[in-house]
Structures are given as C-alpha cells and as structure tokens.
Design brief:
Chain A: Keywords: Membrane, Transmembrane, Transmembrane helix. The complex is a heterodimer. By secondary structure, chain A is mainly α. Chain A has 22 helices and no strands. The longest helix of chain A has 29 residues, at 405-433. Chain B has helices spanning 2-24, 35-43, 46-56, 70-79; strands at residues 62-66, 84-88, 99-102, 112-118, 121-126. Chain B is elongated, with a radius of gyration of 23 Å. The chains are: A mainly alpha, B alpha/beta.
C-alpha cells in the first residue's frame, strides 16, 4: 500500500513536471512562474495528447517505457542551469508562500484536505459513468499498451474523447496495475488545484476569503472528487480546464485560454461549443483591442479543433449527436417545447442549494444587479458568450439525444452545470471586483 | 448590499457543506481498511473474482455473463478484457456462448456444466462448445 501511495504521488509529479516543462519552454519564453494548477492542467493535457498521437502511429507503451518517459521530463534540471536555478529558488523560498498567505486560509485548506482525503480514500471509484465508460477505456488502453483502431470502439459511446481515460491509463502504467482506488488521487489533486487557482485570483479582494468559501465548499464541487459515485467522472476536469481558460482570458493570456478550452474539448465533447465560439470570436476580440492580433491563440485554438476532429475521423469514431436523421428529429420533436423544457431543467438545477450551496444565488444576484458591466468590457463579454455557447450546446444535445429527454436531463444536468460553475463564479467575481492590475477593471 | 450578499452566501455554503459532511461521516467507514478489501467490498467480491478468472482463463477465451447487478456485471466484463464476454439477459440463447459466468448465484440450465466456483460466482461451459 505504501509503495502504491508513493507511486501515485510520483504520477502526480510526472504530470506537474511535464506541465512545468511545457509551460517553461513553449509558452512562458523561459520565464519560470510557479503555478501548480497550470502545471497540472498542462501536464495532464500534454501527456494525453502524446498518448493520442502515439495511437495514430500505433506505437505501444508499457510500464518500463512510461517510467523512462516520466524520468525524461526531469532531465531539463540536469541540462538547463537557468531552469534549475529558478525552480530551486522557488523551492527554497517555500516559507514565503506561507508567510504571505492568510493563516486562516492555510488552516482552511489543511482541515479541508484532511476531511476530503478521509472521504475520498475510504472507497474506490464506483460510479456508473466512471466504471463503465472512462475507466473501462483506461483499462483497455492499459492492457493493449495504448489506443488503437480496434480498442477505441470497444466501450460505448466510442465518440467520447479520451483525455481522462489515457490519463488514468498513464497512471496504471506507472502503478503496474489497473487500480480503481489510487486513481482517485488525480481528481483529488484537480479539485485542490482548482481551489488554489480560484484563491490566487480572489485573494486580492478584501472579501476574498468569503468568495473562496462560497467556491470551495460548494457541495457538488467537493463531492465530485470525494464521493465514489462521481470521483471517476470527467466533468470536474472540464470545470478545471474552463476555470483556467477563463482566468487566462481575464489576464489577457489568450493562448492559454485556447489551450485550456482545447483540452476541455478533448476531455468531453460537451466542451466543444466554447472552443468553437472562442476560435470564431477571438479575431474580432483581437482586432478591436489595443493588444496585438491574437495569432498564436487563434492558431492553437484551431490546431486543437483540428486535432480533436482529426482523431475522431482517423479512428472512425463518428458522432452520436451529428449522425442523426435531422428531418426525423425535427418532425418528431417540437423544438420550442423541447428547448423550453431543457431551460426549465437548468432553472430547476440552479436553485438546488444541496448541489450548489449559495453559488447560483450569488451568480444570479450579481448578473441581475451588475450584468450591464459585461457589455462594457470585451473580455467579460467574451467570457459570457463562451458560457452561453455551452448552455446552447447542452440544450441542443438534450434536443437531439436519442434517449428520453426527461431522463437524460434528470441524470446528467448537474454534471453539465458543474462544468460551467467554476468559470461562471469567476466571471461573477470579476464583475464584482474587476481585475485592476491587468487593465480589465469592470467597475 | 454586495458585501452582505457575499458574506451571507459564504455562511450559507458553510452551513450546507458542514451539514453534508457531518451527515456523511457515519456512512464512511472504510478509510482504515486495506485497499484490496475496500475494492472487494464495493465490487461485492468481483475484483477478486476477475483476478481469479484471469488466472484460469486463456486470453482468447470468450463467452457470456448473465446480467445480475448492474455495476458489478459491467465491471467484471471490462476486467476480463481481452477475454471477450458479452452481457446477456436471462432469456438469451446461450448456445454459442462457449463459457458462461453467473455472478452470485448458480444456474440449473441442463446445457451448462459447472467448471469453477469462486466464492459463490459460477463459471460454466456450454455443452459441446469449445472455448
């Protein structure tokens, strides 16, 4: 058990280190900036893309190869003096992190980590979607040494993206076994990185601690990483990527926004509307602002769209929603009634205090009282449009789904709302406070 | 007004979360159990059964699993990969199944010959089939 725990921590380190290397060499122009959430998100994403790319060439992986590759990620410390010095500086200066933080927040994080850890590690993953879809694929990829044209179709629906599954299979390769228990360390780490990222943004505000509490203690958010029924689902990862995409947007780092939206779409198809809306709108956003035209953001965004669709095309995955007889759907289902029903479903979900605490009450209050500010700031407007694109996508999916719409809504709407909840709360926080340091002040 | 809303919302969230956590504590009892036991407890012994079947069945084995408990059945089917076992209902024609797994209870179908019993999970061979 102790070895498995150490190996699980090692897996997390490989994600963080790979993310650090990607960030340092590809995006930060060799200026090291310590950000756990970005490292974890980029690490998971880049390793997933790497494994998916290996699938194109049918190059199989095994435990030995994966551990070797994981060690390669640490090699820059040997060859790059500049990086080594910067990272060591941050590590040796760890005391300043604690000294500059509110002790109450540190205590809150520690207590909550213990409670959440106690819940999470009392059981293995045991939710229908997790066991039957995401981790079932992970097991198959682990047994076969990766993705190939045959095994990608075994678990239905085949058109589900594979980021979470290949992340779990990477975990299995290093652990040397398919483990429904230790794999929970990934969503557990994702949840804490999500809250740390939120805290990094809200701490500048006097009421930052209260905003953190509203976010961190949102029942369904922490339950998604701690309850056996949800801890293996992919929705938390999508919410994580969306939060990072929005925080990058508000900090005018559009390339990061494109990357994280792209990675969200590689986690679940549900996230495609936001990515497509971003790719379509970012040229206008760039042309009207005083900043440079966002060429790299546009390039990265479309590259990830093409990679996503190219993967689906190459492996003949199709789309359960697009491969439909549209005339039949339109004939059988009155679109207005069905859309109204879905929107009522969302309204009902927003008022579920047992799922969202006071999160949606706060969101509703600030949108109603200060919503006008969104239209005065292009960044906020783009954020709102991305969320609306998501809601339109969800509603459209509920319309075209072959399953009964009511059943589909009852069993999935809270998971969809979880995806947009973190960025929506962040958007509302920015409406409330602005981001004065970065020139996006909304007041 | 904004401050009042944010502060009240934070306290409401804390209240709901604390209530949820305190309510869930009595149901969480497995933290100190060994990992294998936690997994077996949740899967109703199907994790151990899958390990057992992997030892006795060749990788090319194929067959059917009678649908019993939802998650446990799908879990076993997945764990047996690359052995391909289809999930079948009670009334299904099992003549071409080769091997048949019945989780949790025995079968009395005269076509089936019991070849293994692991903690109340049964493996049968369909008479005349080769797997």
């Amino acid at each position: 058990m102790f070895i498995d725990l150490l190996l699980s921590i090692f897996v997390l380190l490989t994600f963080l280190q790979t993310g650090l290397v990607c960030d340092y060499y590809l995006f930060s122009k060799k200026r090291f900036k310590f950000d756990l959430a970005i490292f974890l998100a980029l690490g998971i994403g880049s390793i997933a893309i790497f494994q998916m790319a290996l699938g194109f060439f049918e190059v199989p992986l095994n435990s030995f190869l994966v551990i070797m590759l994981a060690f390669f990620a640490f090699l820059p410390y040997v060859f790059d003096k500049h990086l080594r010095r910067q990272v060591l500086g941050v590590v040796l200066d760890y005391k300043s992190i604690f000294q500059s933080s509110n002790p109450l927040v540190i205590l809150l994080f520690i207590v909550f980590a213990f409670v959440a850890g106690y819940f999470t590690f009392s059981h293995p993953v045991w939710g229908y979607d997790a066991v039957q879809r995401w981790l079932a694929k992970a097991y198959i990829f682990w047994v076969d040494g990766g993705i190939n044209k045959a095994n990608v179709h075994i678990v239905s629906p085949a058109d589900d993206p594979n980021l979470w599954s290949v992340t779990a299979s990477w975990f299995y390769f290093i652990l040397g076994k398919a483990d429904l228990f230790w794999v929970q360390t990934v969503p557990f780490a994702v949840f804490f990185c999500l809250t740390i990222k939120f805290w990094q943004i809200v701490k500048r505000e006097a009421l930052g601690l209260f905003w953190l509490v509203i976010f961190m203690f949102t029942p369904f958010l922490w339950q998604t990483s701690t309850l056996k029924a949800y801890s293996g689902n992919a929705d938390l990862l999508v919410g994580f990527y969306f939060l990072l995409a929005f925080s990058s947007l508000f900090y005018s780092k559009l390339s990061y926004t494109a990357i994280f939206l792209g990675l969200a779409a590689l986690t679940k198809n549900d996230a495609l509307p936001a990515l497509l809306a971003f790719c379509a709108l970012v040229p206008f956003f760039g042309l009207k602002s005083k900043q440079k035209f966002p060429v790299s953001a546009l390039f990265v965004g479309w590259a990830l769209v093409l990679f996503n669709l190219g993967f689906k095309y190459y492996f003949s995955l199709g789309s359960r929603y697009l491969d439909n007889d549209w005339s039949l759907v339109l004939k059988q289902k009155p679109i207005i009634e069905y859309t109204k029903y879905s929107l009522h479903g969302f309204r009902e979900e927003f008022r579920q205090v047992n799922h969202w605490g006071a999160g949606f009450l706060v969101i509703g209050y600030f949108i109603l009282s200060r919503g006008g500010k969104v239209f005065k700031d292009r960044t906020l407007l783009l954020g709102l449009v991305l969320i609306l694109a998501q809601v339109v996508g969800y509603t459209w999916t509920y319309y075209v789904t072959r399953e009964d719409q009511a059943t589909q809504i009852a069993t999935s709407i809270f998971r969809l709302v979880l995806q947009v909840y973190p960025p929506l709360l962040l958007l509302v926080f920015v409406i409330y406070s602005g981001l004065p340091k970065f020139g996006n002040k909304a007041k | 007004m904004d401050i009042v809303v944010v502060v009240c919302a934070a306290f409401l969230v804390l209240y709901v979360a604390t209530k949820g956590i305190m309510g869930s504590f009595p149901q969480v009892s497995g933290f100190w159990l060994p990992v294998d036991k936690k997994v077996d407890r949740e899967t109703l012994g199907q994790a151990s059964y899958a390990d057992h079947l992997k030892k006795i069945l060749p990788e090319k084995a194929y067959g059917c699993i009678y649908f019993s408990l939802d998650m446990q059945t799908w879990f076993l089917q997945n764990q047996l990969y690359p052995r391909m076992f289809s999930v079948v209902e009670e009334s299904a024609d099992i003549n071409d199944c080769g091997l048949v797994i019945s989780q949790f209870w025995p079968r009395t179908n005269p076509l089936l010959v019991e070849i293994d019993n692991f903690n109340g999970n049964y493996l049968y061979e369909v008479k005349g089939n080769v797997y």
